[in-house]
Amino acid sequence: MSDAVSRSAPPSSPPPPSGVAASVPPAALDPAQPAAPTARLPAASPLPIDVRHVDAGRIVVDKPAGLLAVPGRGEDKQDCAWTRLLARCPDALIVHRLDQATSGLIVFARGEAMQRALSAAFAARLVDKRYEAVVHGLIDRDAFEIDLPLIADWPDRPRQKVDPEHGKPSLTRVRVLRRDPAAGTTRIELEPVTGRTHQLRVHLLAIGHPILGDALYAPPDVVARAPRLLLHARDLRLPALPGLPDLPALALHSPPGF
Description:
Elements: E1 6-8, E2 50-54, E3 58-63, H1 81-86, E4 92-94, E5 103-110, H2 112-123, E6 128-136, E7 143-147, E8 150-152, E9 160-162, E10 171-180, E11 185-192, H3 199-206, H4 220-223, E12 231-238, E13 250-253
Parallel strand pairs: 5-12
Antiparallel strand pairs: 1-7, 2-3, 3-5, 4-5, 6-11, 6-12, 7-10, 8-9, 10-11, 12-13
């Protein structure tokens, strides 16, 4: 593995979100009242969704693998985490997404002002996210970084690919949690410093350790080793937002189901 692909780094725990809120623009939201529903929302779904946290500005749900985060094109792709949430919180708006095959924590904003504030926090990299995955093969180092530029593979969408010349800078931090020599797999923690489409999946494939069950990127024998993609958004830390004392920093944890 070349130095451009991986750089050694010491293991670390997720940093606390305190002390960073000054970089987030204030949101014009009364924390005592939910925001009014916005127009042009899709129809709410009566199907259940696992809501982990609700306050006046933020809603965090635990999305199951196989469920879209937001609606896709076509009537058969309208059932998603967002439309299920709208039945309970009609003011919920999209802030970020998870791949359909990925499970775990995803935050929605209550109203447009909070949507802008949370989107700014994501853009400023003030939101801390950690994923857990099980990959093919035994990773030899305990902690390292994958620094490979990514771009859409236009002839083979929705796949992405490494492209040193035209790709966007993409950085993933990796920490080994446990190796299983008998199974020939490694359980890892992942920190996506950047947030490119399929970043974690493509980076791990590029270093020779595809995620088990990844039907889009892994070879058939690795896909067959798991009934689903073994990738889970496990930890989410949101910073406090200035001007909103009733919305403090928030840290949530969702253990993976694999």
